[in-house]
What does this fold into?
Amino acid sequence: MATLTWHGHATWTVRTGGHTLLVDPFFTGNPAANQTAHQANADVILVTHGHEDHTADLVEIARRTGAAVVCNWEISEWLRGQGIDNTVPMNIGGTVKFDWGTAKMTPALHSSSWPDGTYAGNPCGYLLTLTENKTTIYFAGDTALFGDMTLIGRGGIDVAVLPIGDVYTMGVEDSLVAIDLLKAKKVLPSHYNTWPPIAVDANHWATRVGHEANAQPIVPRVGEGVEV
It folds into this structure.
């Protein structure tokens, strides 16, 4: 069993086989966060794009923990300029292997830049296949709905983590279509309720998933570990 923990917004921890994976570290400035960046641990950090609400604590945590940072080439080069050399640069469609499993970089329809507006490469998601029980977990990242989600899900997805906040990503309606395309067994919401523009009633979303999609919705509380 793997354990997923939501830290508010789009920051997640995956614990599997004694390894800790951290997705999009944003604790500082995150009003929903349940801990500080200094309390976060990781063996691997997965970065979906350069926006500050996904990378605010990337350098600090990577430097302190020595975690390998999986990211696109442009973010990897930027990190090297910050003195972070333990990176795993890749691009969309590629797969890298680790002791805990594999990470495949998937497309995402979004934008990606640093706070000063400079380019941070293509946004992405990740399809993780864990060695432990061969569990597959799809982190869509910040994205709109797109038809190739059918291809991402064709091998079967155990767990999908999808944005539902709307405005900057897909919202509730499109997430229901995405669930259908991905054919995920379980689905967890992300990127919502951090600020008023992306406020969503996640319990209502879950009810709709239960009635309109063939998947089990799970709405974790911030800091709550969910076994998948």
